[in-house]
Amino acid sequence: MSTEIAIKVEHLSKVYKIFDKPIDRVKESLNPFHKRYSRDFYALNDVSFEIKKGETIGIIGKNGAGKSTLLKILTGVLTPSAGTIQVNGRVASLLELGAGFNPEMTGIENIYLNGTVMGYSKEEMDGKLNDIIEFADIGDFINQPVKMYSSGMFARLAFAVNAFVDPDILIVDEALSVGDLEFQNKCYRKFNDLKNENKTIIFVTHDINSILKYCNRSFLLKQGNLVGSGTSKTVVDLYKKMISGGSTAKNDIKEKITDNKNKYNNWKGLLNLNKNFLEYGNKKIEIIDFALENEKNEITSIVSSDEYTKIKIRIKMNEKIDSPIFAYSIKDIKGTELIGSNTFVEGVNTDGLQKNDFYEIVFKQKLSLCGGDYTLSFGCTKHNGDELTIYHRLYDMVLVKIMSVKPVCGLFNVNTEINLDKI
Ligand SMILES: Nc1ncnc2c1ncn2[C@@H]1O[C@H](COP(=O)(O)OP(=O)(O)OP(=O)(O)O)[C@@H](O)[C@H]1O
C-alpha cells in the first residue's frame, strides 16, 4: 500500500445470521445436513474505499446504515465476514467510549494504562500527562476511580487521552455529543490542530453541519452499501435527498392538484414531522397541507441558510371569513421563537376568501439562521380588536435542519460587509 494511504478497505462485508426464533439457532447448529434456519443480513455489503493521510472524512447515513459496524471493523473491535482492511499508522478511537478504562483505577492511572496499550513508555506518558489533564478539565476527579465519573467526565477523559496519544488516525463517533457545548467546541478545535498536523480523522455523526465544516470528503452508507463518496457538499446533498424521500415532488403534486382538490395533502409526507406537535383551533379555516421548499423546488426538511426557501401552506375555507392572518414561525429546539412572518405584518390582502375554496400561501425568504435544528409552526388566526380567534394552529409541526456552511457569530447570519482601510 502506498505510504500516502492511511486506510484501504476492499470488498468489506459483515454478515449476521438472523434467526426468527431463538430455537432456530440450536436447530441449525445441530442439524446433521447443515439445513439453514437463518437468513443472512448484510450490515456491510462489499464496501471498498481508500482514505489518504491527512484527510478528514465524514461518514453519514441513516440509523442502521452500517456506520458503527464499519468503524468497529476499522478499529479491530469486530472482524469482517469478507474483504480486507489495511491500516497505515497508529489508530486511536473514541468508539467504545472509555472502553479501555479500568473502572477501579483513577483517571491518572487510566491515562498511563491507555498509554501503555498504545505502545508508549511511562516516560513518554509523563510528558503528555499535563496536556491530557488540562484538556479533560475534570478537576479533582482525575484522582478518583473512573467508576465515579459521570458520562460527560468519561467523554472528556476519553477524548483527551485519545487526542493526545498522538494518533496517526483518530476515529470519532457521536461520542462527542456527550460533552457540554464548551467541551465540544474544544474538541473541534483539537480536530483542527490534528488536521493541521496532517493526521487522518474519521468522523461519524448525524450532524451534517459538522460534516460540512470539518470534513473535506465524505462517504454515504445506505443499508450496508457505500452509495456515495465525494466532497462533503456533494455527499450531504445526496443524503438530504435520501432522507427527504428522494423527492423532486413538484410535478407529482401539480398533477394531483388538478386530479382532485380534496387530495391537497401530499406535501407533508415528504417532510420530517414532529410527533410531538401541538394542534388546536376551531378549524373554520383548516391547514390541510404545508411544505418547505428549497431553491431547486424540492420539498425537504433540510435547507441552507444562504438559499431562498419557500414555506407553503394550503388551507381550506370551511366558512367565509374576511381578513384572516396566515403565519409561520421558526423556533430553536429550546422553544425560543427566532423568526417568522405573517400576511398581516406584510400587508397582504386576505379579504374575499370564499367558503369551501382552497388557497395556497407562499412565504419566500432566506432562513439566515446559524446551522442547527429548529421547528417550524403554522397558524391561521384573526384579530377582532383585542380578541384573537384561532382557526388552526400547528405548533412545532416540522423538524427543520438549517445548514450554514459559513460560520455564524450568534444566532443569525446578518451577512455583514466589512471594510478594512488604512487610516
Ligand atoms: N450483532 C448483530 N446482529 C445482528 N444485526 C446486527 C448486529 N449488530 C448490528 N446489526 C445490524 O446491522 C445494521 C447496521 O448497524 P450499525 O450499528 O452499524 O448502524 P449505524 O449506521 O451505526 O446506525 P446508528 O446511526 O443508529 O448508530 C443494523 O441494521 C443493525 O441492526
TrEMBL record:
The UniProt family comment states: Belongs to the ABC transporter superfamily.
Q: Which SUPFAM superfamilies match?
A: P-loop containing nucleoside triphosphate hydrolases (SSF52540)
Coiled coil start-end? none
Q: Does the keyword Repressor apply?
A: no
Q: What is this protein called?
A: Teichoic acid transport system ATP-binding protein
Q: Which organism is it from?
A: Pectinatus brassicae
Query: Mind giving the lineage of the organism this protein is from?
Result: Bacteria, Bacillati, Bacillota, Negativicutes, Selenomonadales
Question: Which key words are in the record?
Answer: ATP-binding, Nucleotide-binding, Transport
ABC transporter domain residues: 7-248
Q: Where is the signal peptide?
A: none
What GO molecular function annotations does the UniProt record carry, in alphabetical order? ABC-type transporter activity; ATP binding; ATP hydrolysis activity
GO CC, any one term: membrane
The record lists the membrane-crossing segments as none
Q: Is the Transport keyword given for this protein?
A: yes
